[in-house]
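Input C-alpha cells:
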C-alpha cells in the first residue's frame, strides 16, 4: 500500500496565480526580449506620438557627453591596469629585497656586490643590530663599507658599538671605534659614551675609567650626565658602591646634576640590594633637588619594599606616589600582584586583578607569569592550569619563567605525569631554556623520587648547551643523599661542583 503523502509545512500558493514552470518562465522571458527588440527606437516612437525630436545641437551635445564618458571609462580602466602592474612590481621588489637581506651576511665584498640597494643593506643592518646578532651585523657592515654609495657616518658606528657593548664584546667595540677614527670621523660624546658603556658592561672598569679621564681632556667630548649614569649603573650591577660614591662626587665637582634616570638607577639598585636607608635618602635628595619622580621611581620603590615583604610600607608609598600625581602603569600592578602573591595575600591580589579588569588593563606575559606562580605556590593547580590555558588562548607565548612556575608547582604536588607534560610542551616549542629551568626540573624530579629522570636532565642540558652550575650539583647531591645513595654519581657531582671535573658525561 502506498504511503500517504506528507503535508508540506509551507502554505500552498493560491489557485488564481499558479506558479509558472521553468519552461514557461524561459518562454516568457524570450518573448519579452523579442517584443522589446521589435519596438521602434525612442526617437521614432516620440515622432509617432507627436513629440518633437532633438535638434542637431542637442544631438551634438549628447555625442560629446558620450565621448567624454567613454574617455573617462577608458582612463579609469588604464589606471586600474597600471595599479595592478605597479602592485605586482612592488611585491616583486619587496620579495627580492627580503630575500637579499636574509643572506646578506653570507656575501663577501667583491666586484658583484658593490651596487646593492642602500635601503636593503641598511634595513638588514638595523634588523641584526636590534636582534643583537653582532657577528652577522659586522659582516653586513663590512659589505656596506664596500658599496659605491657608502660614506662614513658616526651614527652607524655608535649603534654598532652600543650593540657590541650589550653583547659583552668590548674589544670588538674598540676596534670599531678605531676604524671610525681611521675613516676620518671625529669621535664625539656619543661615540665615547658608547665605548665607555661597552667596557663597563663587561666589568672592565679600569679601561672605562681611563676613557672617562680621556674624555675630560677633550672639550667637545666632556662626559655628561648620561655618561656618568651608564657608569653608575654598571658599578651598581657589580655591587661596587664605593665607585658609585666616587662617581657622584666627581659629578658634583664637574657641576653635573643627576637627572631622573640617575636617581631611578640608584633607587632601584639600593632597593634590590636591601639598602633601604640609602634608597630613602636618595629619594629625599631627588625631591630636594626639584627632580620630579616618575612612574619608574614609584615602581622601583614598590618593588623594593614589596619584594622584601614590607607590604604596609609598599602600600603607604603607593598612596603617596598617587597623591603626588603619578599614575600607575601595567608594571606597577604586576609588582603589586607579585608582592601580594609572595606574601600569600590572595584577597588583595584578587582585588588588584578585578581593578585591572574593570579599567581594561591588558595582561602581559609578566602578569600571567606572576598569577601562575602565585596559584602554584598556593597549591591551587586547577586555577593555575586555567590561567595557563587562558594565556595560550590570548596568543601569548609562554617563556622560561612560565615553565619554571609550572614545574615547581607540579614538583611540590608530586605530579610526575604533569611534569612530563611540561617537557612535551618544551619539545614542541622553540622556547629558549636557561639554567634556572633545568635547576627547577632537577629539584622537581628529586622531590618526587624520580632519580633516574633527574640524572637524565644532565643529558638534556648538554643538548641545550647549558652548563650545570653549583645549584644544579648541590640539588642533585641533596636528593641522592636523602634517598640513601652515595655512589659514583654523587662523587662525580662533587667533583663537578668543585671544578675538579668537566661536564663530559
Amino acid at each position: 500500500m502506498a504511503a500517504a503523502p506528507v503535508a508540506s509545512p509551507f502554505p500552498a500558493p493560491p489557485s488564481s496565480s499558479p506558479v509558472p514552470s521553468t519552461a514557461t518562465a524561459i518562454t516568457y522571458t524570450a518573448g519579452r526580449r523579442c517584443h522589446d527588440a521589435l519596438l521602434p527606437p525612442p526617437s521614432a516612437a516620440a515622432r509617432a506620438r507627436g513629440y518633437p525630436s532633438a535638434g542637431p545641437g542637442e544631438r551634438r551635445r549628447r555625442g560629446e557627453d558620450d565621448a567624454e564618458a567613454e574617455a573617462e571609462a577608458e582612463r579609469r580602466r588604464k589606471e586600474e591596469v597600471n595599479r595592478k602592474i605597479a602592485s605586482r612590481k612592488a611585491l616583486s621588489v619587496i620579495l627580492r629585497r627580503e630575500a637579499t637581506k636574509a643572506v646578506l651576511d653570507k656575501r663577501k665584498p667583491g666586484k658583484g656586490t658593490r651596487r646593492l640597494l642602500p635601503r636593503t643593506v641598511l634595513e638588514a643592518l638595523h634588523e641584526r643590530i636590534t636582534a643583537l646578532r653582532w657577528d652577522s651585523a659586522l659582516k653586513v657592515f663590512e659589505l656596506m663599507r664596500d658599496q659605491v654609495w657608502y660614506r662614513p657616518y658616526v651614527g652607524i658606528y655608535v649603534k654598532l658599538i652600543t650593540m657590541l657593548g650589550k653583547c659583552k664584546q668590548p674589544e670588538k667595540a674598540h676596534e670599531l671605534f678605531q676604524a671610525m677614527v681611521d675613516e676620518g670621523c671625529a669621535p664625539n660624546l656619543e661615540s665615547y659614551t658608547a665605548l665607555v658603556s661597552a667596557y663597563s658592561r663587561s666589568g672592565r672598569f679600569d679601561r672605562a675609567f681611563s676613557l672617562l679621564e680621556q674624555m675630560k681632556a677633550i672639550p667637545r667630548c666632556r662626559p655628561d650626565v648620561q655618561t656618568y649614569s651608564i657608569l653608575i649603573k654598571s658599578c651598581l650591577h657589580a655591587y661596587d658602591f664605593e665607585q658609585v660614591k666616587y662617581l657622584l662626587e666627581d659629578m658634583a665637582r664637574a657641576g653635573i646634576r643627576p637627572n631622573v634616570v640617575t636617581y631611578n638607577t640608584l633607587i632601584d639598585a639600593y632597593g634590590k640590594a636591601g639598602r633601604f636607608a640609602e634608597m630613602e635618602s636618595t629619594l629625599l635628595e631627588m625631591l630636594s633637588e626639584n627632580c620630579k619622580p616618575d612612574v619608574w621611581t614609584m615602581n622601583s620603590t614598590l618593588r623594593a619594599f614589596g619584594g622584601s615583604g614590607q607590604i604596609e610600607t609598599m602600600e603607604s608609598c603607593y598612596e603617596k606616589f598617587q597623591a603626588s600625581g603619578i599614575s600607575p602603569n601595567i608594571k606597577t600592578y604586576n609588582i603589586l600582584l607579585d608582592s601580594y602573591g609572595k606574601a600569600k595575600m590572595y584577597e588583595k591580589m584578587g582585588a588588584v586583578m578585578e581593578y585591572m579588569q574593570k579599567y581594561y588593563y591588558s595582561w602581559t606575559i609578566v602578569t600571567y607569569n606572576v598569577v601562575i606562580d602565585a596559584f602554584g605556590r598556593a597549591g591551587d593547580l586547577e586555577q593555575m592550569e586555567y590561567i595557563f590555558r587562558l594565556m595560550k588562548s590570548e596568543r601569548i607565548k609562554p617563556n622560561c619563567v612560565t615553565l619554571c612556575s609550572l614545574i615547581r608547582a607540579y614538583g611540590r604536588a608530586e605530579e610526575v605525569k604533569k611534569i612530563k607534560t611540561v617537557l612535551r610542551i618544551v619539545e614542541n616549542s622553540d622556547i629558549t631554556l636557561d639554567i634556572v629551568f633545568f635547576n627547577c626540573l632537577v629539584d622537581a624530579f628529586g622531590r618526587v623520587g624520580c632519580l633516574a629522570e633527574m640524572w637524565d636532565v644532565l643529558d638534556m642540558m648538554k643538548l641545550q648547551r647549558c652548563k650545570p652550575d653549583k645549584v644544579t650539583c648541590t640539588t642533585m647531591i641533596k636528593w641522592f643523599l636523602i634517598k640513601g645513595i652515595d655512589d659514583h654519581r654523587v662523587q662525580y657531582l662533587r667533583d663537578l661542583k668543585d671544578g675538579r671535573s668537566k661536564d663530559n658525561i
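The CA atoms of residues 232 and 244 lie 6 Å apart. Residues 1-52 have pLDDT under 50 and may be disordered.
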